[in-house]
Design brief:
about 180 residues; alpha/beta; Rossmann fold; 7 helices; 9 strands; globular
């Protein structure tokens, strides 16, 4: 089994176990989201080669808003390794706080203040992830949502294409696909 297949198998197993198995009810939603966010990077192809190359040494995630996900990732309390490398978190409150991240995570509280952050993300080729009720009319690439008391994610294919990202078909198979702008 190739290294990429092993990574995907691990990602899929964690996702299925966290979504289905009742023993994992004690794992918080934030822990599931944190683990999935880090694993997403293994299935995303950035449009800029330099940014893709930097993934070999560290994954930088800028987090907008006060969310437990920040602490979980900072404390490495749920396996925050990306391809055997370091995950660095930037807690941000403004666009000027970001220093070369790969991912911009936008918490629920900032759902009305997206525009400057999404402009920056588009210009600097950042993967955008949120936790809104839906991403239908937002310029977010990946969104976490809860359905039947389980964490799921949706991918907005139009926004992914518009930003020249590529997402592995393996990740697309387990996501809800949205095509709206």
């Amino acid at each position: 089994m190739s290294k990429r297949n092993k990574k995907f198998s691990l990602f899929l197993a964690i996702s299925i176990i966290c979504f289905v198995h009742p023993v994992f009810d004690q794992i918080s939603d934030a822990q599931v989201k944190a683990a999935m966010m880090v694993r997403f990077a293994d299935f995303i192809y950035w449009p800029e080669e330099e940014k893709q190359t930097r993934l070999d040494s560290e994954l930088v995630i800028a987090i907008l808003g006060d969310t437990p996900i920040s602490s979980i990732l900072e404390n490495n309390s749920f396996g925050t390794q990306h391809a055997q490398n370091y995950v660095r978190i930037q807690r941000i409150t403004s666009v000027s706080d970001m220093v070369a991240p790969h991912i911009l995570f936008i918490s629920k509280e900032f759902h009305n203040e997206l525009h400057p952050f999404l402009q920056y993300a588009k210009k600097h080729k950042l993967l955008t992830i949120s936790e809104f009720d839906h991403i239908k009319d937002r310029k977010i690439m990946i969104n976490f949502f809860t359905e039947d008391n389980k964490i799921h994610f949706e991918i907005n294919q139009n926004i992914v294409r518009e930003n020249n990202f590529k997402i592995s078909s393996r990740l697309l198979r387990i996501a809800r696909i949205t095509e709206s702008k």
